[in-house]
Every structure is written in structure tokens, then in C-alpha cells.
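re: ur question from the group chat, yeah i did fold both. here u go
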Amino acid sequence: MVCELVRHDGNEGLAMALELSILGCWRGYPLHVHTEGLRGTGKTTMIRGAAALLGRLTRIAGCPYNCDPACPHCPRHRGVSPEAIAALGREEVPMPFLEISASAKLGTVVGSIDLARLTAAANAEAALLPGTLARAHRGVVFVDEINRLADVAPELADALLDVMGTKPGRLQIEEAGLNPVSMPCQVTVWAASNPDEEPGPLSDVRRQLADRFDFGVAMRRPTDPEDVRAILRQDLLTRWFARGDLGTSAKPGRCTEPADASLRRRTSGATGGRILRLPTGEPSRGTSLAGGDPVNGAAGGQGPGHVRGCTSHGSACAAPPFGVR
């Protein structure tokens, strides 16, 4: 089952940066990506779509910090013997993809006191509740409108600087009544912003944060009329699939392949071969990938402009996650 997003010269830069960043996640080396562009150019759609390609990781069973069984790092499992870790068991879970908004609170991002355990009727104790950054260990955090976050929530920008400053970064949680807790935090940060809107480009708002990104990708709308036709046609087909108007077994909100092979051939020709095929398992994620929103979805276009820090290493990806047919 796939969802399709038209790939053109306007979004190649971001696609390449995300491919390399995903490979970095798989290898345990975060590569941070920041994309800037006008509203409606598809930045958020493409980033959220790439989350479907992150894959899975193995962690200690039930660990909210995603501890690697071979190298536990969290307050619960750090220093525990390998035999005890083996007894706890392990599990495979999707690689985390979490989001931070400009309105988020510091406690929910970094971590805070677990009130449920503190007020438990039996065995009450002071314990930490991991925040977004701690739960995204070995995964990705997406920050939309990061320039606005840096302007209105400087304390959140400071937390991002801590986890992006080194590889892996460091996360320190300080709460009244508890000893400070510090741990490594291997988080990849993907961010998007609209530099033409207040408060302006991220480099003007918080230069230190802008410099932490390994890739800076400028986005623009598609300029080729054929690309625009392909995007609109693909958006229309997605809506048909979601409603089940093509006589398939499609369920609302889920992207599916059409049963009519001749329709597939016609639509493939209409898009001129500019199809980006993204696997998906979640209905809501599939819908957003295919561009259900005509403003921020696939009806917009994405463009590279420049990719800062992108070298010839990109050619080493012989079979990139973003497959073009």
C-alpha cells in the first residue's frame, strides 16, 4: 500500500536532505534538517511524509526512553547488569517521530515530575515523567515554525541547542525536590519555517540555533506547468481513493492502489512519471502524504534552492528511501 507525492525539481533538495538524515538515524548519527520557504510550498507535508520511512528500533521492553539493550542510558536502566537487562526482555517499536510546537511548555519538552506516581495511593514516590525530547531518543523531533518558537519560547530553543550541540547531545532535567538528571539524547531535529513572516528568518532570530542544522534547504513552488498538472491530478485521485469512488475496497482516509489497471496507466501518463512513492501504514499519515490539504498538501510544491552541507556523500545512497518511478 502506497501514497504518492509528485517529485519535481522544486522538492529535490529537501528529499535528498531527508534521505541522508534518515540514513543517519539508521546509523545512530543525527543529521539535522531545516527548510525555509513560503507558506503552502509543502514543507510540512514532505517532512511528515518522510516519517513513514523511519523504520523500527529495538529497545528494552517498556522503556519510555527507548534504551538500546546493548547500551542503556536512562535513569531506570543505566548501570543495570546485562543479565538483568536480558531478563527484562526487548521489543521492536516504530522509530519515534514527535512534534514540538511554539506553544509547548518546557516541562512537556524536557521532562517533569510524574504527578501520577507522586500522588499514588500506594507506594507514592517522586519520579520523572520523560518529555518529548527524552521519548524521541534514537528518533526524530519535528519543529514547525521554528523561527516563531525561537522568538516566543527561548527556553525551548535552549533545550534544542543542548541536544543538537553535540552528537549525541545531552539532556538535563531539573525539578524542585529531585536531583538533576542528565543523560545522552540522540535526537534528529527536522524543522520548517516561513522566513517572510514574523519574526523573520531563523538566522536573524536565533543565529546559534540556525547554525546547529547540518542541512539548510530553501523551498519554492514548482515552475513547470506539467508538474502543477501532475500535482493537481494526483491530489484529485487521492480524494477519489479516500472516498472509494473508484470501485475499490478503499476505506475513507486510507490511500490505496486503484483496481483499474487502465486508470493506473492513464494517471501515470498524466503525471509524466513524476511520482514519489511513499509506503504508509497509518490512514491519517497516508492522507497527509498524498496532499489532502490543497494549501499545505501536495497541491503545493517543494523546492531546494540550496542544500547547505550536502556533499558528494549523497551519491552513496544507491537506493534512496524516496523512490522515483
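okk and heres the other one u asked abt
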Amino acid sequence: MDIFIIGAGAIGRLFAAFFQGAGLHTAMLCRAEEEASMLETRGFNVKTLQGTVEHHLIPTFSASHNLPISRVIMVCVKAHDTEDILPVIPRCTTPGSIVVSMQNGLGNLELLSEVTKPEKIFCATTAQGSTRHHDGSIEHCGTGVTRIAPFAPSKAHHADMTQLQELFTKSGLNIELHNDCRSILWSKLAVNCGINPVTAIHGITNGELLAHVHLLDMACKAASEAAETARRMNIELLFSDPAEEVAKVALLTAKNTSSMLQDLTNRKSTEIREINGHMITQAERAGVDPAVNRELMRQIVHLESKMC
């Protein structure tokens, strides 16, 4: 198997469709037995950016199955589910397999290193937007750069990064390779700290954020708190102006429904603790007052208690 995607949610399905469309041997792991069976037999539809609909039938497993050994494992589960999938990793890898975490928040790489050699772990962030609908279909709602960096740089990581670049590029994705995983993770985290909770609280798409000046301002302030925290931690971000970056991402993913809003809509726990919560902890250690992030987290936790 070329690529085994752990987590068949909106992003997992989108990337599985990219990879399969490029002729790569691709499979997915789904936590729910019933859903895995449905995906295995019926597949799912993808509404493309051009408005056309593609159907994908991709081999899908649950944890109770014998799992395929794969060259690349891509972890796309929610950050709060990372610990639960750790026992799966050794069942689908060899010592040469590459594990890529494409997840929100902080702390995922450290957990994955409990079951995989750190030098074989990579983090990835993406500007691709995907919304999952109730019928199991997904809609490709935004495009942009996918960035990859090693968790523990080593002499061998360049060959692995080249292999990843070839696989992702073959699938039509715009790839950037970086050497500092903290840089790409915190750059993504800062934007997520603003866009995700604000859109979730107010029930709007990313693009609609741009039409509400006071909401956009709140998202920008949350991102700025994260950016200042990163600066004090000597982490170099990929942008200089957090407010400009928030507006840019909101525009590029205008039709997308943030993962946090999708979670609340589906009455599921959000990643607020792994995104804003982790950032708040680091901000307090760095001497930054994360007042806006605290308030956003308070509101999301309150909504969770009512809806989940």
C-alpha cells in the first residue's frame, strides 16, 4: 500500500481522493465499524472546486480488521483522538514507513513518537478546505499550500521528505518542504486560534467572517496573541502580520465550514483544548495575556456543554 489514511473525516477523505485520483494505492481507517463498511461498499462523492462531482470507492478498514502495511501513514484524526489510535500504528508500518500527522493543535507528534521512531515522523499543515455533509459526501471548499516538516531532523529525513514530495506532487498538490516543524505548526495554530472558534460560535463560513468587521477583528486579535507567544518562544512564523494572514486564509477557504463549526453542528467535541487551550498554556508561560483566546475557549466549552 502506498498511503494509509487513519481518520476518514473531511480532510482524510479529501486527501484519499487526491491520492487515488493520481493512481496511488490508497486505503483509509475509520473508527466506526458500520461507517467503515458503508465506505467500503458504497464509497463517497466529492464535489470539486469546479462544481463537478466525483465518486471514489476506496478500501476502508476498521481497527478490528487486518490492516495493510503501508509506505506512508497519514494521521488525520482529531487531536483528542490521537492517543486512541496509537495501537494501530505498529500494525500497519515497517521500520521504513513514514508517519505524517496532518492534524490541528499541538502535542500530536509527541504522542506518535511513543510508537514510531521520531526521525520517521513528519508534520503537515494544509490550506485545503473540506466540508463533510450528512450523506457522507465532502465538498472541496478551498485550496492552497500543503507544508511538510520533520519532527526530529536527521541525516535520513531528506530522502523521506523527497518521497513525500513526490507522492503529494503527483496528486496535484502544491507542496512546500520546511526544516522546522514548530514554524509550520505554530503558523497554522495562530490562524486556527482565530478562525475556528469565531466561525463556530457565530455559525458562519470562513468567508463570511470577512463581512463582519467586529468578528474578523476578534479572530485577528486571537491570532495575534498566538503570534506573540510564538515570537517569545523564538519560533519564526511564516508570516509577519497575523491579521493579514487570517484575512488571506478566510478568503482562500471562503466556502469552507471550519472543523470546529462542523463538530458543533454534528454535536461532537471540538478541538478547542488542543488548539486554543494549548496556546493559552504556552502564552501564560511566555508572559503573554491570552485574553481573547480565553474568552473564545470559554464560549466554545459552553456551547459544547449544551450541544454535545
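fwiw on the second one: Residues 181-202 form the longest helix (22 residues). The chain has two domains: 3-179, 182-307. idk if thats what u expected
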